[in-house]
Write a structure and sequence with these properties.
42% of the residues lie in helices and 16% in strands. By secondary structure, the protein is of the alpha/beta class. The chain starts with a strand and ends with a helix. The structure holds 2-phosphoglycolic acid.
């Protein structure tokens, strides 16, 4: 079946030296983990993170990338730069990038196709605002985001993609979605993948919950049938992350 995945998202936190020091502390704490453990880190932290994570269970990912191979895109990072640095995963379409850097579903789709082409596992983010939830259009909104993100992705590649459902109102707020709310949307996403591809494919794709995941709520969330792990912001900056990876 699906292997659980717990991925940290550092956002704009930790310098390269802090990265080295943190990984040295974290690596022994997650040694016994049975799930996949990933830390998605700022671009300048990728190389020190990959070096410091060598020989441990931790894989390293990026937080964003451009969809072009190379060229005149000042300030951007290409997929080949990520793979050459040793990244295995890349977060795409995080709500902070959508809200603050005007990322669109179409752009996320281009990036996802490019990531797959380069053998990177995209962690494709989706999530509703509080207004959308209150208006009862959460599932419609998520379906639109995911439908567009997966345009042109071949069936055999879907198992090498990850979807992260992150309600925007739950990110960094300490207001975690209830397990029922999280499971309902993750289940709706799996149903959509079955509609777009087939049930077997839907059964293979890993769907994560994100938004104020902490050692106190991880176990219950991750035990839901359609939740295969978490995308973890704040709690991935501390060694407590090990308790999210190995919930009691
Ligand atoms: P949070 O962030 O865990 O701090 O709420 C999650 C995310 O944005 O991926």
């Amino acid at each position: 079946m699906r292997k659980r995945l717990v991925a940290g998202n550092w956002k704009m936190n930790k310098t390269p030296s802090e990265t080295r020091a943190f990984l040295k502390e974290l690596a022994p704490l997650v040694k016994g983990a049975k799930c996949d453990v990933v830390l998605c880190v700022p671009a300048v932290d990728l190389i020190p993170a990959v070096e410091a994570a060598k020989g441990s269970r931790i894989k390293i990912g990026a937080e964003n990338m451009h969809f072009e191979e190379k060229g005149a895109f000042t300030g951007e990072i290409s997929p080949a730069m990520l793979t050459d640095a040793g990244a295995k995963y890349v977060i795409l379409g995080h709500s902070e990038r959508r809200e603050m850097f005007a990322e669109t579903n179409e752009g996320v789709n281009k990036k996802a196709l490019k990531a797959i082409e380069h053998g990177l596992i995209p962690i494709i983010c989706c999530g509703e605002t509080l207004t959308q939830r209150e208006q009862g259009i959460t599932v419609d909104h998520i379906r639109q985001q995911i439908r567009i993100a997966y345009l042109g992705i071949a069936k055999e590649d879907v198992k090498n993609t990850v979807i992260a459902y992150e309600p925007i109102w739950a990110i960094g707020t300490g207001k975690v979605a209830t397990t029922e709310q999280a499971e309902e949307v993750c289940g709706a996403i799996r149903k959509l993948i079955a509609e777009l591809y087939d049930r077997k494919t839907a059964g293979q794709v890993r769907i994560l919950y994100g938004g104020s995941v902490a050692p106190s709520n991880a176990k219950e969330l991750f035990e839901q049938p359609d939740i295969d792990g978490g995308l973890v912001g704040g709690a991935s900056l501390k060694t407590d992350f090990a308790k999210v990876v190995l919930p009691e």
